[in-house]
């Protein structure tokens, strides 16, 4: 039973990593701010980079809206 749960957890982690990497690629991000390749960092780091990039993009859009 524990093997199944562990495999499901591992699968979820891998799927989430893949989703975050693909999302970051679509945003034009190919490495972390410190220069590491996205494929080489932890899920935690990917989540952090993704949130920061979404905030950065939102700030840019907001600033562009204020300029119009």
Write the layout of secondary structure elements.
Layout: H1 2-26, H2 43-67
Helix pairs in contact: 1-2
Number of strands: 0
End-to-end gap:
59 Å
Average pLDDT across residues? 94
Query: So how many helices?
Result: 2
User: SSE order in H/E notation?
Assistant: HH
Per the principal axes of the C-alpha atoms, what is the gross shape? elongated
- Uncertain stretches: none
The radius of gyration is 16 Å
Structural class estimated from helices and strands: mainly alpha
Strand content: under 5%
Fraction of residues in H or I helices: over 70%
For the record, the count of structural domains works out to 1
Largest sheet: none
Organism: Ornithinibacillus caprae
InterPro entries: Fur_reg_FbpA (IPR025072)
Pfam families: Fur_reg_FbpA
Protein name: Fur-regulated basic protein FbpA
């Amino acid at each position: 039973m524990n093997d199944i749960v562990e495999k499901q957890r591992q699968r979820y982690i891998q799927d989430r990593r893949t989703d975050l990497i693909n999302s970051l690629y679509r945003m034009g991000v190919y490495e972390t701010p410190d220069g590491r390749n996205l494929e080489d960092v932890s899920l935690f780091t990917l989540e952090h980079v993704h949130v920061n990039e979404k905030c950065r993009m939102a700030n840019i859009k907001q600033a562009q809206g204020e300029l119009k």
